[in-house]
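TICKET: design request
STATUS: open
ATTACHED STRUCTURE:
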């Protein structure tokens, strides 16, 4: 072999060896899972369970770092961060995807899905499953749904009928449907990140908010809100999402191992979500810091009548077929 050819050959050989060494010493794939709620909630428990399961089934290959309580990103930043590759998994509430898809606004329509059984039926059916892929062209893939539960209204004054909410300021998640829902009862909605809610309530910068029993309990909203109306007027669930670039870049065996662990963790989160909501509701009642107001059928019907026109307003954006499928899921 000529001297110059030998030189090229050894250069190529060392480059190949270097590349191989990089792959084999690159270490495990690190998944940052960012969320905004406390650890003792369905989402917090699901994230921790996922870490436990995946690190057990893919030892040394995948590591999960869970960041609860908006420690890494708030709910207004996490999806942008995901598209930049700074976080690999998140489970924002379904109300927080409006910038990326309109169809998920369905879940915010007041009094549409009547209980968590109907929510599961819709999510597991063809319309709910199709929505998981509704942001693929924006670079986001839905890997599954996770329950939290039905929302209640908390306030610094008793809310029994829609007129009680008039001119009151309510914090909402970043959703135009939720804004329309509060406007429908003459209230003033304010879109604010979850991490700011407690302080806004404590300083009385706002009068109230809507949330699930587990969020009201774990974030201590009940300590600064003397009244909670058990309205069950809407659902607060999550979509576990990742970036298409990260997901499709994973080796096939790793991707399927992660999905298996995630499915199991989501099933666990869904299983505990109902009992958590019952427990946290009771803990709030026992605390005596907040009075839980149960509505009569007639009072509840007034809220339904006031808020239901919001469906029509968003029908074109959400899709009538999606709304019809949700109505059918109630049966
Ligand atoms: C969450 O449950 O992830 C937060 C809900 C909210 O922003 O109210």
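STATUS: resolved
RESOLUTION: sequence designed for all positions
ATTACHED SEQUENCE:
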């Amino acid at each position: 072999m000529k001297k110059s050819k030998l030189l090229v050959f050894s250069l190529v050989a060392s480059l190949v060896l270097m590349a191989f060494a990089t792959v084999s010493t690159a270490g495990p794939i690190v998944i940052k899972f960012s969320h905004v709620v406390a650890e003792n909630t369905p989402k917090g428990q699901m994230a921790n369970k996922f870490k436990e399961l995946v690190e057990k089934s893919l030892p040394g290959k995948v590591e999960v770092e869970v960041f609860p309580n908006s420690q890494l990103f708030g709910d207004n930043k996490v999806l942008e961060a995901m598209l930049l590759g700074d976080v690999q998994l998140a489970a924002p509430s379904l109300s927080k995807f409006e910038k990326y898809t309109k169809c998920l606004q369905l879940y915010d329509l007041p009094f549409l899905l009547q209980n968590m059984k109907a929510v599961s039926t819709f999510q597991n059916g063809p319309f709910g499953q199709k929505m998981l892929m509704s942001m693929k062209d924006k670079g986001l893939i839905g890997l599954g749904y996770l329950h939290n539960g039905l929302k209640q209204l908390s306030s610094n004054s008793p809310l029994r009928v829609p007129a009680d909410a008039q001119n009151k300021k309510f914090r909402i998640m970043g959703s135009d449907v939720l804004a329309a829902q509060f406007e429908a009862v003459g209230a003033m909605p304010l879109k604010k990140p979850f991490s700011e809610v407690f302080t806004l309530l404590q300083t009385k910068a706002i009068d109230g908010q809507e949330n699930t029993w587990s969020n009201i309990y774990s974030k201590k909203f009940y300590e600064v809100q003397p009244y909670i109306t058990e309205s069950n007027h809407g659902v607060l669930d999550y979509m576990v999402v990742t970036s298409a670039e990260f997901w499709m870049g994973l080796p096939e065996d790793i991707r399927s191992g992660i999905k298996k662990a995630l499915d199991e963790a989501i099933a666990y989160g869904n299983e505990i979500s109902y009992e958590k909501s019952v427990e946290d509701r009771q803990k709030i009642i026992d605390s005596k810091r907040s009075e839980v107001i149960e509505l009569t059928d007639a009072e509840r019907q007034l809220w339904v009548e006031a808020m239901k026109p919001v469906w029509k307003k968003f029908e074109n954006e959400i899709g009538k077929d999606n709304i019809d499928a949700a109505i059918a899921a109630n049966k």
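CLOSING REMARK: Confidence is low (pLDDT under 50) at residues 6-25. The pocket of succinic acid is lined by residues 36-37, 75, 93, 148, 173, 194, 211, 215, 236 (CB under 6 Å).
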